[in-house]
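Task 17 of the worksheet. Students: predict the tertiary structure of the chain below and write it out as structure tokens. Keep your answer in the requested format; marks are given for formatting as well as content.
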Amino acid sequence: MQFELMASMMCADYGNLEKEVKNLEEGGIDSFHIDIMDGRYVPNFAMSLNDLSYIAGATKKPVDVHLMIEHPNNRIHLFLDHLRKGDTVYIHPEAEYHPSTTLLSIINAGMIPGIAINPGTSVETVMEMLRIVKKVLVMSVNPGNAGQMYLPYVGKKITKLLSIKEDMDFEIYWDGACSADKIMEYAPKGVAGFVLGTTLLFGKEQSYGDTLQNIRELKF
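Model answer:
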């Protein structure tokens, strides 16, 4: 079964970031997920333009940037300038007055446009944006910190998105508290990829290559 695995780089060892990127790449990670937080939209600060620039320059793998910041359109080109055509940028619709304008800037730069949906955000409130974006990042936890507990009602939201994704031409990705059982349940249903953090990937005794291989060999 085909599905993408993305490394949540806010969970990486920053004392050995070059080695982390190399080991993840050699281990078979599909892309690098970069969380940018401003301390305003979410109650935390995480990663920076320098982190983004370094990781994007250290790998040939795709990069997807998750902007958890207020009014991303005000600074969107700062982020786009560090990316390559074909990389992905997610914004939170609630963080912008006119999110479609920000998404258009992402599209015009040759990037893949995406939105991130918080646990408390209903599908109905983002329906029109689903006609613009190519990726929907469903947050199974409230954004801002790693290691949170899964919010089970998010599953019903994913079911609703799965029922309309073909008609509206977008793919669904999972972010937050991603365990093996969630991959086993939702990959067969059509979720295209999973962001891996401390639950499955980082801080384990085995190598990234072994961990990623074990995930891809899960019995569905």
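Marker's comment: The beta strands are 4-8, 31-38, 45-46, 63-68, 88-91, 112-117, 135-139, 171-175, 193-196. Helices lie at 17-27, 49-58, 76-80, 99-108, 154-168, 180-186, 208-216.
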